[in-house]
């Protein structure tokens, strides 16, 4: 049995909607867009750095097989 849930009260929702009816939607949309751009930029930068690093090339290179020839040390 879950804890006592508060019943859905439409007047609270209505108040919330009325409060954010003015300038807020534009601000939130702008902020969302900016943050999304920021995250995509960061992601792109990370991808670029990884793709151009020699480590990544070493990782993506096919493993060199030595064909049954044991390397003597």
Question: What is the element layout, followed by pairings?
Answer:
Blueprint: H1 10-19, H2 24-52, H3 54-60
Describe this structure in words.
The structure is a single chain. With 73 residues, the chain is mainly alpha-helical. It has a domain at 25-58. It has helices at residues 10-19, 24-52, 54-60. It is elongated. The mean pLDDT is 61. Residues 1-23 are annotated as: Disordered.
Task: Give the key terms.
single chain, 73 residues, 3 helices, mainly alpha
How would you sum up this structure in a few lines?
The protein has 73 residues and is mainly alpha-helical.
- Secondary-structure element string: HHH
Number of helices: 3
Overall outline: elongated
How would you characterize the largest beta sheet? none
Number of strands: 0
Radius of gyration: 28 Å
Structural category: mainly alpha
The overall pLDDT average reads 61
Low-confidence stretches: none
Identify the quaternary structure here: single chain
| Proportion of residues in extended strands | under 5%
Q: Ends: how far apart? A: 68 Å
Helix content: 55-70%
Region (Disordered): 1-23
